[in-house]
Structures are given as structure tokens and as C-alpha cells.
Structure to design on (752 residues):
């Protein structure tokens, strides 16, 4: 049954859900009650909250509701802003920090154990995944928070209703998690994980997979090898991304130091001592993984054998960059100069019996066709489960005179290999062809049939294994990609949700900026805007795409198009909470060649106007960047953004030395300039060396704080800095990138 209440449609079931939640929420251990008539010793809920709660109790879903939780022994209230979709959740989080906090409340992570959040989670069911958790900063702020909320809640009467998009499916939540990792937005990633557990009941193993992915995104390799379920994870059949993350963790924790020392013998010995036994289940087959860490570990594993397979070594090393093993690279490549021994099928069958399928496949492939050889290759292909090699195996079988015989003798084996290859096109096929129009999975289906979304997703995943330059040689493929991004964003289907992180990681994270890919960068900005979901992760992805676009050298019209769209985006999210993002965009525009003065000044005008409106809430970091941008652009500020007398930047001890490290030299230098202005009595340096130079080592050794931007760095630099710093507390790993985030992270560390 439905009833109308203004513009709000209320379902009877929604009313019952709301009433059921309230009855559970205002019950032990919560000391608050909606009424004190029947429950002696209970506190009556704040008057300022009653109107919103009564509105919520009717089943209406047009506004959030704020519920207080106070538990015995805790003087501060834990606040639950209950929302009805992801968009409302993001808006409320931003408004709470702008309208109420941070003076009166501090935001909590979904899994934060502080205060009454544990009691809150025990009350909320999977039906309520969209919440903002906060905690009063002091006991005497409890009443003030309720008053401010009541004021803001009434203001919603004056705002027009906006359409919302509810993010509830597993695919959408998982895509939200992947986007958060790309943006290095840990809070959003944790929230997506929490929503997945609440709404979809993640198994223990799937939760472990996500936790491994999260730790890998932030370079916390030690956390992976010390995971509570580490032993169990190594025994499981892992998703491709997690499989690569596990090898990365093993390599960084146990092997990287020996590689950097340039001693191959020590590296092989360390692998055999620390990795080989515990990772034995992962060494059965590398599958479709192309992670350098996985390939290198398979090379080291082969070098541990009494008779290493030259064919396998040649295959593995050929897939790696020439300097993949660092100082050991020449010695490793020298292994390929050894004479190859003729391999017999009996030796390959021994490897199969030992479950060393990669070794067996490499030995079998050069052999002449025969029923025995082909059967053994099919067995390997089934176990390796790499779509490309499965398809190659089937192609080879079809070209022989033994196909009919083997289909009679080994039907189930061949069917298993066909399933592995079904609906998938190898990256090699797509990369090798230069025809005018690439063959998408739809074209491989029978007339009247359409390829599944999974087949198309797998096809793009395979393409993304290649270097991004593949698009330069295939303009039709690029056109198809741009169409998929922009059309998919409007449709907001599950296929787009799955593919957006794949495309972005491929062409922004792993591919250097290129002028011929500018149209792709523009499509990312357009697609993210069209999705109408402008959370922190999406904004950070836009910033990264903008950085690539500007560094690639856009034409004036491309420059204008990008800036104009970014202005549209900022108009949607314009608030003090989004100012950091806007300042980073402004900083990027100022650091790169300007192709249209009017466009850049338009952006700066919008940013300065927003900052002026919220002048009293500006942090020292924001004020310093505004002053720097104004000087560079010739804008007269007349002291509008000078530091207030109460600025805490003056609390930083004089004489501190700060080193900022990342491969993004532009962001380094801008952050150093900003910090030096703020901390005149400190010395701030920047470094972008890609190896362990003497300058980097000495700078890290003398610094009290080393800000290491892990998302834009080399392994060699990390170990160089880690070995040089006087204490582990000196090393500050900055999440994400961008001038504002670097500066704020350093300032927070110095003021702690």
C-alpha cells in the first residue's frame, strides 16, 4: 500500500521497517529513549531531533535522520546519520563536517571501535547500509550537535528534491571498492567493504581477498603476510588481482632487499628459504597473471630446480622488462644463453605428476604433435586456466590430424579447456591485429545471440594486459573504448561498473600521458560526471585524469572542454569539503602550460570565490595554497587569506627538516614551496630520484619527517629511505597524491 505525502511516496513496508529499527535502536545498551514514561532511568532524546525522527517513522525517505547512541561509561554521544542511498550518504557526510564539525563532531570509520559505534553496528541490519557515523568531541557538545542538526534539517524544506541513485547490488558495491582503491581513498574502500558485508554477507575468504587488495593498494605488504588468514589464503584458488597482490607481498617482504643488493645467488637462496615452501600451492600455475612479482618468483622457483627448464625461463623472462630484476638483471638474462637440452615427453609427464604445470607446458609446446603430446598439453591448459593459452591449445588441436581421435578419447578434458577459453579473446590477438575494426565478443556469437556482460568484461581485461599504446595503432578500438565509457556511464549498468576500474588502472595508473590518448582522458572526466555520483573517489579519479590530460599537451579546445566540465563538476559538489580537490586541480593547471587563459582564470575565479565564502573555516594548508596560486596568477588578495592569530602552524618546533619524495616532481616542488611558506623556521626539501642515490640517502637520514608518496614511487627509493631514516616514526607514507594531501599530511605529523 502506498500513500502520498507531498512529493514523497511512502510505502507501508517502509513505515514498518522504520518503526522496527527505532524500537531496536532505542533499547539497551542505548541510554536514550523516545519516551521516559515507562522506562525509569532513561534519557529523553533531544528535542531538536524529535521532528526528524517522527518524519522518519512515517516511512518517508526524502531526508536523513539523526539518531543518538549513548552507552554506559561514555560521556560522548555516537551519532548515526541514517541515509537512504549512497548519494545522500556522501552529501550528509560533507554537510556534517561543514555545518557541524569538526569543532563539535569527528567522523568515524564504519568499523571504528570508538564510543558506541560497536553498539550501533549491532543494531543496524543489512537493510540500512548507508550511514554516517560521528562522535561528539566533548560531553558538553552533545546538546549543541542536536541543535545544529535541527537547524540544518529545517533548511531541507527550502531545497528542491533531487533524484537519487541507490547503490545496492554486489557488482556496484565492488566497483565502488575498486574505484576507492584507484583514488587511494581508504575510508571509501572500508565503507564499501562494510556495505558488502552488511548487504551481501561476504564469506570469510572473500573478505580476506578484499583486505589483501586494500593493503596492497597502500603498499602495506607486511600487513598481508601477517594477515590472520594468511595460511588459508595461500591454499585457495585466488582471483587474478589477489593472486598478483600476494606475490607482490611475498616479494617485497622477503626478496626485494636481496634483489637491490645485486646478488642473484642470495636472491635465489632467499626465495628457497622464505617463499618456496609456503607458496607451493601458488606455484602450480601462473595462469593469466602478468604481474612482474609473480613472473619473477616463477623464475626464481625454476632456478631452485636441479635441472631448470630453459623453455620456461625463456618464456618468463621474455615477459619481463629488461631491468625487472634491478642490479641482478644482467645475470638473469645471461641464463638464456645456456644451451637448451632436448626435452622428452616422459620428463614433461613427470612435471605434470609433480603439479608443475607451467614447466610441463613450456617443455611440451615445442614437441611434435602426437596424441600423447596433445593430451598432455590439454591437461596443462586445463590446470593453468589461462584463456589465451587455452585458446592457443584448441587452435593447435584443430590444426592436427588427431582432433577426431582425441575428442572421442578425451571429451571431458577438451570440454574443460573449451570452457576456459569460451567467450574470451586473448590480448595477443587484439594487439597483433591492425585491421580497421577490432572484433568484439558480440561478433563471435551466433546470429541472434548476444555475448554476456561477463564475456565482454573478460575481453577488455585481456586487452588491458597490454601496454596502453595498443590504442594508438587501433583507432577503432579507441573509438569503441570511448563509446563504452560515455554510453556506459549514462546507462549505469553493471558492465560499466566492473569495467571502469579496469580501464582507468590500465590507461591512467599504468600508462604514461600521451597526446593521442587525450580523448580518452576527456571521456573519463565526462563519464564520471555523467554517472552523477561525485564522491571523494570519483573526484580523485577526475583529478588523476586531468593531470594526465594536462601533461599530455592538449589543444586549446581540449583544454577548454576539460576545464569547463570541471567547473560543472565543482558546481555540483561546491562546498568547503570539496575545496581541497579544487585547489589540487588549480595547482595542476598552474604547474602545466596554459592553453587558454580565460579557461584557467574561470577555474581560479570559482575556487577563490568558494574559499572567500568559507573563509573562516579554511585550514592553514588551504590558505597557503591560495596565496601561492594568487601570486602566480597575479591576483590581488589584500590579505583575505592570511593566517588567523590562532593558527597552529606556529606550534611546529623550529629547525625541523622535512623531505618530500615522489616521482611526481611537480607536486613535490609545489608542496615544498607551500610548506616552506607556512613553516619559515623549518627546512623543506623535495626529491624525485628513481634509485637509491647518495643525495636521497643523505636527505632521508637528516630529515625528521620523510613524506613518502607511495602511489608515485619506486621500490628502490622506498628501501633506500627506509634504511636511511633514523627511526621508523620518521617515515610518513602519504595516502594518495596531490599537493594539498602532501602538505596536510606533513603538517598533521609535525603537529601531533
Amino acid at each position: 500500500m502506498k500513500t502520498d505525502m507531498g512529493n514523497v511516496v511512502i510505502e507501508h513496508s517502509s513505515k514498518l521497517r522504520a518503526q522496527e529499527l527505532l524500537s531496536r535502536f532505542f533499547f539497551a545498551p542505548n541510554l536514550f529513549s523516545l519516551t521516559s514514561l515507562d522506562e525509569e532511568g532513561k534519557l529523553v532524546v533531544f528535542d531538536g531531533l524529535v521532528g526528524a525522527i517522527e518524519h522518519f517513522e512515517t516511512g518517508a525517505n526524502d531526508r536523513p535522520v539523526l539518531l543518538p547512541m549513548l552507552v554506559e561509561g561514555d560521556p560522548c554521544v555516537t551519532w548515526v546519520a541514517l541515509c537512504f542511498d549512497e548519494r545522500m550518504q556522501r552529501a550528509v557526510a560533507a554537510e556534517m563536517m561543514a555545518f557541524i564539525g569538526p569543532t563539535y563532531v569527528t567522523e568515524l570509520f564504519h568499523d571504528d571501535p570508538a564510543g558506541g559505534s560497536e553498539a550501533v553496528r549491532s543494531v543496524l541490519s543489512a537493510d540500512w547500509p548507508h550511514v554516517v557515523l560521528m562522535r561528539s568531541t566533548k560531553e558538553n557538545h552533545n546538546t549543541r550537535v542536536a541543535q545544529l542538526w535541527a537547524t540544518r534539517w529545517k533548511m531541507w524544506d527550502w531545497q528542491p528534491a533531487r533524484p537519487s541513485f541507490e547503490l545496492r547490488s554486489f557488482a556496484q558495491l565492488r566497483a565502488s571498492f575498486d574505484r576507492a582503491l584507484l583514488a587511494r581513498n581508504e575510508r571509501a574502500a572500508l565503507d564499501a567493504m562494510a556495505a558488502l558485508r552488511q548487504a551481501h554477507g561476504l564469506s570469510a575468504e572473500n573478505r580476506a581477498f578484499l583486505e589483501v587488495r586494500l593493503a596492497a593498494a597502500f603498499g602495506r605488504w607486511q600487513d598481508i603476510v601477517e594477515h590472520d588468514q594468511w595460511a588459508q589464503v595461500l591454499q585457495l584458488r585466488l582471483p587474478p588481482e589477489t593472486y598478483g597482490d600476494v606475490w607482490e607481498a611475498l616479494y617485497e617482504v622477503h626478496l626485494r632487499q636481496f634483489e637491490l643488493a645485486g646478488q642473484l645467488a642470495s636472491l635465489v637462496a632467499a626465495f628457497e628459504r622464505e617463499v618456496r615452501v609456503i607458496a607451493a600451492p601458488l606455484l602450480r600455475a601462473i595462469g593469466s597473471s602478468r604481474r612482474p612479482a609473480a613472473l619473477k618468483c616463477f623464475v626464481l622457483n625454476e632456478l631452485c630446480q636441479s635441472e631448470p627448464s630453459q623453455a620456461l625461463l625463456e618464456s618468463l623472462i621474455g615477459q619481463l622488462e629488461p631491468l625487472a630484476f634491478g642490479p641482478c638483471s644482467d645475470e638473469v638474462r645471461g641464463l638464456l644463453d645456456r644451451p637448451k637440452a632436448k626435452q622428452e615427453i616422459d620428463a614433461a609427464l613427470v612435471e605434470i605428476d609433480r603439479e608443475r604445470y607451467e614447466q610441463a607446458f613450456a617443455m611440451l609446446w615445442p614437441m611434435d604433435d602426437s596424441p600423447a603430446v596433445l593430451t598432455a598439453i590439454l591437461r596443462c591448459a586445463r590446470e593453468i586456466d589461462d584463456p589465451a593459452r587455452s585458446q592457443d591449445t584448441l587452435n593447435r588441436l584443430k590444426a592436427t590430424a588427431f582432433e577426431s581421435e582425441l575428442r572421442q578419447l578425451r571429451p571431458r578434458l577438451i570440454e574443460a579447456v573449451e570452457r576456459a577459453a569460451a567467450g574470451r579473446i586473448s590480448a595477443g590477438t587484439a594487439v597483433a591485429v591492425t585491421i580497421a575494426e577490432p572484433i568484439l565478443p558480440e561478433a563471435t556469437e551466433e546470429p541472434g545471440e548476444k555475448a554476456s556482460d561477463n564475456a565482454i568484461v573478460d575481453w577488455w581485461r585481456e586487452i588491458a594486459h597490454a601496454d596502453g599504446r595498443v590504442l594508438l595503432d587501433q583507432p577503432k578500438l579507441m573509438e569503441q573504448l570511448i563509446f563504452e565509457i560515455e554510453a556506459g556511464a549514462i546507462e549505469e549498468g553493471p558492465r560499466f561498473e566492473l569495467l571502469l576500474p579496469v580501464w582507468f588502472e590500465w590507461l591512467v595508473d599504468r600508462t604514461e600521458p600521451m597526446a593521442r590518448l587525450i580523448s580518452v582522458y576527456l571521456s573519463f572526466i565526462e563519464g564520471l560526471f555523467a554517472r552523477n555520483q561525485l564522491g571523494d573517489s570519483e573526484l580523485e579519479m577526475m583529478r588523476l585524469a586531468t593531470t594526465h590530460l594536462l601533461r599530455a599537451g592538449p589543444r586549446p579546445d581540449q583544454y577548454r572542454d576539460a576545464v569547463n566540465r570541471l567547473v560543472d563538476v565543482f558546481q555540483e559538489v561546491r562546498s568547503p569539503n570539496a575545496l581541497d580537490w579544487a585547489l589540487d586541480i588549480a595547482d595542476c593547471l598552474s604547474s602545466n602550460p596554459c592553453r587558454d587563459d580565460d579557461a584557467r582564470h574561470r577555474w581560479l575565479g570559482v575556487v577563490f570565490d568558494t574559499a572567500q565564502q568559507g573563509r573562516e573555516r579554511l585550514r592553514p594548508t588551504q590558505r597557503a595554497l591560495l596565496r601561492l596560486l594568487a601570486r602566480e596568477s597575479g591576483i590581488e588578495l589584500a590579505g583575505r587569506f592570511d593566517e588567523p592569530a590562532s593558527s597552529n602552524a606556529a606550534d611546529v618546533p623550529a629547525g625541523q627538516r622535512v623531505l618530500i619524495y615522489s616521482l611526481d616532481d611537480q607536486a613535490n616542488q609545489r608542496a615544498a614551496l607551500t610548506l616552506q611558506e607556512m613553516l619559515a623556521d623549518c627546512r623543506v626539501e623535495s626529491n624525485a630520484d628513481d634509485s637509491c642515490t647518495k643525495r636521497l640517502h643523505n636527505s632521508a637520514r637528516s630529515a625528521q619527517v620523510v613524506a613518502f608518496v607511495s602511489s608515485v614511487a619506486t621500490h628502490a627509493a622506498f628501501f633506500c629511505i627506509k634504511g636511511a631514516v633514523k627511526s621508523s616514526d620518521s617515515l610518513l607514507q602519504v595516502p594518495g597524491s596531490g599537493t594539498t594531501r602532501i602538505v596536510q599530511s606533513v603538517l598533521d605529523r609535525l603537529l601531533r
Residues 522 and 561 are 8 Å apart (CA to CA). The chain has four domains: 2-158, 170-374, 451-633, 648-750. The chain has a mean pLDDT of 81.
